[in-house]
Amino acid sequence: MTSLSPRIRIGSAPDSWGVWFPDDPRQVPWRRFLDEVAQAGYEWIELGPYGYLPTDPDVLARETEQRGLKVSAGTVFTGLHRGPGVWDATWEHVSAIAELTRATGAGHLVVIPAFWRDDKTGEVIEDSSLTAAQWRDLTVQTERLAREVRERYGLRTVVHPHADTHIDTEENVARFLDSTDPDLVSLCLDTGHYAYCGGDSVKLIETYGERIGYLHLKQVDPAVLAGVRAGGVPFGPAVARGVMCEPPAGEPALEPVIAAASRLGVDLFAIVEQDMYPCEPDRPLPIARRTRQYLRSCGV
């Protein structure tokens, strides 16, 4: 199959190696992740949870360059719907990660909203729906964050709809996009999370194409998802059940997503993320190799 677009750049992330936290004995060491992501055929990576990879820019540059790897983005978690009172703590967290992201030469900052229930225990932390005032805080403060990140660090903010957050379903994603400035705020479309929450990725790309700034490629197992929905299972335990699966076994089909993204005619990163926490250390590499081969068959 001929390439659909030379402008879609494929990568992977620590998430695909079962890495969710800066330090956890069940996770693979960071050097092993870097070795294996390069062995699997990927050129681009994300930083993952801040502190997992070295935070010294010189050390990180040396370790990535010697493996032929480059960084596409950093990632932050925010709770901006909680109002201006959280700004200072949020900015302290974001600025450290944005500084490292810029130092790597990456151009994107992936912003994930706060969970409304604990992803480990399932404890409900706050209401799953936002009030009108909270929506206002979320959108206004996200724009402020995006403006500061762009002006100070030259990074493009891409907001990541995520299961068990307030930016999740088609309705909430559309509301968020319609309420934010397209010049400041773009979307990181995670195909797995969007399907997990009932969304259609191809339809979203076709409807809000100018807002798509970044992709995470992921699939859900529909049978596992049905059980998760029926039981009201939180996202963390759902991942442990295998709700995110190896392509092409799940949904959505990725070739139509890649084709729709290609038709936008813009440069995009498409980073593979198969949530697998926790997982056995020898499991990720074979999956990563097969996934990279599968994506080549999809034209990228």
Annotated CATH homologous superfamily: Divalent-metal-dependent TIM barrel enzymes
CATH topology: TIM Barrel
Name the strands of the widest sheet in spatial order.
1-2-3-4-5-6-7-10
Number of H- or I-type helical stretches:
11
CATH class: Alpha Beta
Question: Mean pLDDT, as a whole number?
Answer: 95
Helix content: 25-40%
| Strand element count | 10
Uncertain segments: 1-5
Q: What's the gyration radius in Å? A: 18 Å
Assess the beta-strand content as a share of residues.
Answer: 15-25%
Approximate shape: globular
Spatial gap, N to C terminus:
10 Å
The assigned structural class equals alpha/beta
CATH architecture designation: Alpha-Beta Barrel
The secondary-structure element order is: EHEHEHEHEHEHHEEHHEHEH
Largest sheet: 8 strands, parallel, barrel
Q: Number of folding domains?
A: 1
Overview of this structure, please?
The structure is a single chain. The protein has 300 residues and is of the alpha/beta class. It has one domain (8-297): Alpha-Beta Barrel (TIM Barrel). It has helices at 30-39, 57-65, 87-103, 132-153, 170-178, 191-196, 201-207, 222-231, 235-240, 254-262, 284-297, and strands spanning 8-12, 44-46, 70-78, 108-113, 156-159, 185-190, 212-217, 219-220, 244-245, 268-272. The strands form 2 sheets. Strands 1-2-3-4-5-6-7-10 form an 8-stranded parallel barrel, surrounded by 4 helices. Strand 5 (156-159), helix 5 and strand 6 form a beta-alpha-beta unit. Helix 3 (87-103) runs parallel beside helix 4 (132-153) and helix 7 packs parallel to helix 10 (254-262). Residues 34-296 form the Xylose isomerase-like TIM barrel domain. This is 2-keto-myo-inositol dehydratase. Pfam families: AP_endonuc_2.
